[in-house]
UniProtKB/TrEMBL annotation:
<dbReference type="Pfam" id="PF00331">
    <property type="entry name" value="Glyco_hydro_10"/>
</dbReference>
<dbReference type="InterPro" id="IPR044846">
    <property type="entry name" value="GH10"/>
</dbReference>
<protein>
    <submittedName>
        <fullName>Endo-1,4-beta-xylanase</fullName>
    </submittedName>
</protein>
<dbReference type="GO" id="GO:0004553">
    <property type="term" value="F:hydrolase activity, hydrolyzing O-glycosyl compounds"/>
</dbReference>
<dbReference type="InterPro" id="IPR001000">
    <property type="entry name" value="GH10_dom"/>
</dbReference>
<keyword id="KW-0119">Carbohydrate metabolism</keyword>
<keyword id="KW-0378">Hydrolase</keyword>
<feature type="domain" description="GH10">
    <location>
        <begin position="65"/>
        <end position="384"/>
    </location>
</feature>
<keyword id="KW-0624">Polysaccharide degradation</keyword>
<dbReference type="InterPro" id="IPR017853">
    <property type="entry name" value="GH"/>
</dbReference>
<dbReference type="GO" id="GO:0000272">
    <property type="term" value="P:polysaccharide catabolic process"/>
</dbReference>
Amino acid sequence: MANKNVMRYFEKYRGYMEDRVRDGIEQNRKGYGYITVTDASGAPVQGARVKLRQKRHEFSFGANLFMLDELESAEKNARYKEYFKDLFNMATLPFYWNGLEPKQGKPRFTADSEKVYRRPVPDLCLDYCEQNGITPKAHCLTYVDFSPPWVPDDVAETKRLLEERYRALSERYAGRINGWEVINETLCGNERNDPKAFFRMPDLIEWNFALAEKYFTANELIINEASAFLWENYKYDRSNYYLQIERALGKGARIDAVGMQFHMFYPEREAEDKAAFYLNPKRIYDVLDTYARLNRPIQITEITIPAYSWGAEDEELQAEILENLYKIWFSHPAMEAIIYWNLVDGYAAFAPQGDMSAGENIYHAGLVRYDFTKKPAYHALRRLLHETWHTETECVTGADGTASFKGFYGDYDAEIVADGKTSSQTLRLCRGGWNESKLTIAD
């Protein structure tokens, strides 16, 4: 039975949240475009009617692509691809070292590589992304807990092997993947076990970012950290993660973006108490405002919003929570990407396929059920992306051939009708751009 009391902070701070969402989206996600319509000779065309339809967001909305062609039937694989591109314009690709190179010197790059569950190969993922206008992102270069067993517990040798890995990945993929998570979960992870010497070494963050800068010179370099250290253990600019990034930047690390996980990994019996950290708009905005002072864009990199079951009330509550959180994140000026984690139930980490009683499957956090029926959360997100945050409008040029419009940043199809002629062209509305487009009616 859904516990609606987890929504109490959204109700308490409803006015504050609605003001920030409304104003933030209007100021940060929309802008004016200026159009000039001319004929083939370059003369301005008065009275041209320009119909504009947004076809892609500039802002990145994504999920992990870990189940691409990994499902148990051709029908499920086809529906996974269809559902993914229906919602998302960004995909997180698995570059876990132990999955990409389980056998030393034999990386799994190509589509004919041996299968590893939840680890589709990069070439396959990139082909899908490029065919569907989806921006790929790599997760991640260094993640100590997911190192292959053949990596020795020796700092010098680990560094040498990591440099080989960075070099090989940059040579093959730096031109096709812009965003690379350089290091993940250094505030948790390996410390839970017997920490490896590499994990304990001084300047771990700085060393990895220096190596990334050496090989990924023109790419976006991202740091990433687990949810508890962001939302639960938050102490303003004295928070561990904030201080870690601040120190690394001070030592010259080229950290281009700050990644923040948002996995609500806690049992349902704790949901009411945990709401103070994860479902409190005032606290969420405060965390984002604080990290924005680092002057780096922010990404919500991994999102798990549990429903805990396939019950109707639980799923409706999941959808309501998702909608509130996405509005907050999308409105914040520092945000550049929001990435859900598992699209489909039953294929999450640390669990046999379809076993909803094991691993991360227990949260029932997908947007689609195991039988591939869409949950309310899927429909809620689709409404936001394709209806609420979507622009379709038209404008008419004046005597000087110009017109203007306001819309969400992104790519647009433009249909120009003038003097009985119709022309179809495209234009782009960019945050921070001049956004002046010249459209021509051909003879």
